[in-house]
Amino acid sequence: MFEVEPVEKKRPQGRPATVDKTFRAFDPHQVLLLPPSLDEWLPEDHLARFVADLVDDVLDLGPVLADYTEKRGYPPYDPRLMVRLLIYGYTTGIRSSRAIERKCADDVAFRFLAADQAPDFRSIARFRRRHLDALAGLFLQSLHLAQKLGMVRLGRVALDGTKLEASASKHKAMSYGRLTEKEERVEAEIAELEAKAAALLAEAEATDTAEDEAFGADGKDVDLPAELDRREKRLAKLQAARAQIEAEAADKARAHAEDKERRRQERAHAADEQAVTDAGEKAAAKARPKPKAQANFTDPDSRIMKNSDGAYIQAYNAQAVVDDKHQVITAADVTTNPSDALNYTTMLDQSAHNTGAHARQALLDAGYCSEANLEAAKKRQLSCGTDTFMATGRLKHDEQVPPAPRGRIPKDATLKERMARKLRTKPGKAAYSRRKAIVEPIFGQIMTCQNGRRLLLRGENGARGEWRLLAACHNLRKIFRHAGMAGLTALTG
Fold first, then answer.
1. Residue 245 covered by a domain
2. Residues 398 and 420 in one domain
3. Which residues form the Transposase IS4-like domain (predicted)?
4. Are 462 and 454 in contact (CB under 8 A)?
5. What are 62-82's pLDDT values in tens digits?
6. Rounded distance, CA 31 to CA 94, Å?
7. Between 187 and 222, the higher pLDDT residue
């Protein structure tokens, strides 16, 4: 009827135009002709393969398996599977149990390690909490593996600390002065509510019939029992926090008095342990917390500390001793004291216990400098042969260490003056200049590569176990980078 111009037929959207080129076959809907093999999904030198062989053939999982004594109940996941996931997760920065659960579905490496199983986050979290001590024990196993591979020399070690954010907000902390005021206020509120409840009960005895008509047989005008219960629970938390602060103040005063008495007896060439105990108890009885001393309601063991950026955070003080040769961690611990000075002796002793030998040199920054540590360094050199290089003060940016004065050391020079002079000598400068290159990259690698800036577990024991698990995974990563799969073959062969 009508003339219509022909219209060119449109191609369906999304379909490529015909080109004179041959592409590789691609069919998203093609069914696999053969069952897939998880073993073919990863390269031969992948970290996940290293972790799998490590858990299956090298690590001792006896402490984990020893905890399974109950024969009844639904079969749990194989401990090897869970340890594989946790080691690989903590090595690659995937530490959250929910994140690990998601990775078991989305990530090829996690699916390979889990043999295509998918444990839920509750199972992962419960396993980590239940076997935390055994998982922290992997740190010693990783250190011994590094020693067998010749990666630990103990010629020179560096000790340092870093602040790890606790799984708690600093806004959930309260000072001792405010605790006392808040406790008095809550006690007054409880007394007021109790008086009001007593008055209502007395009135109710005379007006039961009238109240039943007004509010019903089971009704109440005011839910006083619930209000009382809420405030009593709040009061119990306040009292527990106050008791914690008072106990810490007493312990600190006791330790200081006992140390002071022991040093007095050493100067007098006497030894009376009972006098030491009496001095400590007397000081503890008189101790009173500072008004600004704080306790946290979420994680009572954590403390407000100043980090390297100058910010105050709710944290733990993580300590590490690192060997110079391959940056292997030889000792790891967590304390609740912001100061590093209390950890000099304990950390170097732990390193010697873990490795079976004392280091020839120990490098420490000014945070460890104290009269007690300088005296301990002098004794350690005589007894263990460890030569300590301890900074006596902080240098300004780009400030150079002045050269050592010529001539003999004055006889009346203090231990601090002698240490400062020692660091100004050429050997002292050369040794101490290695400190930053040994220990500080370790903290950077754990914070960034392993996402270890913030702890997931609460309490001092939980923080210590997680820090040692992070240290173990750091050492295992060093072993993988240094020796690879061949290193495992050498250990198992």
1. yes
2. yes
3. 306-476
4. no
5. 999 888 888 787 888 999 999
6. 32
7. 187
